[in-house]
Amino acid sequence: MAESYASVVIAAPARRVWQWFGDFGGLARWHPGIAELEMEDGACPREVGAVRRLWLGDGSRVRERLVALDELGHSHTYEMLEGPFPIRSYRATVRVRPVTATGESFAEWWARYDADAEREAELDRTFAEGVFATGLAELARRHAEI
Known about the structure:
The chain is an alpha+beta fold. The protein has two helices and seven strands.
């Protein structure tokens, strides 16, 4: 099983960061790689079982289902149902923790998935750098402006 991971310290309280990062239906509002997002069947984005459709910048489509939500712990987990990537059993988690010494936040995003061994390094770059780190950097930038 392969794993991709990215993290960042954000100059804002965890509660505020979670309002953005924890919104399963709000990714397109701040992630530069997501062109459009819609919740299937009018689903509430903060209910386990909700499915979202994402259109990426290159026009490809991804479907993901929320499988766990911990509002108090500021984390949620989702699985990819459909997408353009040569993977199986993709499950990702986003989490925000307070940095108590400074009042900042530590945000992290990771995924575990099955892939052919010869594709793992490429997929790790795609997810860790292209999706997770890119999104976290934008989240940090936006909170620096607030």
